[in-house]
Design a protein that fits this description.
With about 190 residues, this protein is an alpha/beta fold. The protein contains five helices and ten strands.
Length: about 190
């Protein structure tokens, strides 16, 4: 989805994996096998989904099983609910999780770490968290593929889900595409 955000790095990652990519900006561009919803600004992307006419057809495709990968803001857009979203913010309700925007903190709280992700071989994955969402609720049929232990601003340390999967939808709180990490994309491609 190329409405806003880091879609070019995702497209480059997929091209390096020999995948033909389409920059989806209108409903006419939705003749695709799967979709990546990038990081960016989730409220802006929500408004652009509506104004571009993409919201309803993309929502229908996701409900009918289209494979999807969402990173950072893409996780927010695909979540069932956003605990601190704007009243006019829409989600695609593609994965049964609840998220909190900027849950790890503002820009100054951005961080990098390495994660072991279930189903991904080759050692830990480098993960870049930038104003990242926190998963606050996970439905029983959602598989948590990775967690991170984090010291939150309220001085509590908690292990929180950062990669989740439900059927053909994978979401992550972080940006693998910013560090040349393609293994989450490969996991997504196996769903096509």
């Amino acid at each position: 989805m190329a409405l806003q955000g880091d879609f070019l790095n995702h497209a480059d990652t997929l091209r390096r994996l020999s995948v033909e990519t389409v920059l989806v900006k209108t409903p006419a561009d939705l003749d695709v096998d799967g979709i990546v919803i990038p990081g960016g600004e989730s409220t802006t992307m929500s408004m652009l989904l509506k104004s571009s006419g993409l919201y309803a057809p993309l929502n229908d495709l996701l409900r009918n099983g289209m494979p999807a990968l969402g990173t950072c803001a893409g996780m927010i857009l695909m979540a069932k609910s956003v605990t601190d979203g704007r009243p006019d913010q829409v989600t695609l309700d593609a994965i049964d999780i609840a998220v909190r925007r900027n849950g790890f903190g503002r820009q100054v709280a951005s961080f990098e770490t390495e994660l072991n992700v279930s189903g991904i071989k080759g050692g830990p994955m480098k993960a870049v968290f930038i104003r990242a969402p926190v998963v606050v609720k996970v439905a029983e049929d959602v598989e948590v593929l990775a967690r991170v232990l984090y010291n939150f601003a309220d001085s509590s340390e908690r292990s929180v889900p950062v990669v989740c999967r439900q059927e053909k939808v994978i979401v992550s709180s972080f940006h693998p595409e910013l560090v040349g990490e393609d293994r989450l994309h490969q996991l997504f491609l196996r769903l096509l």
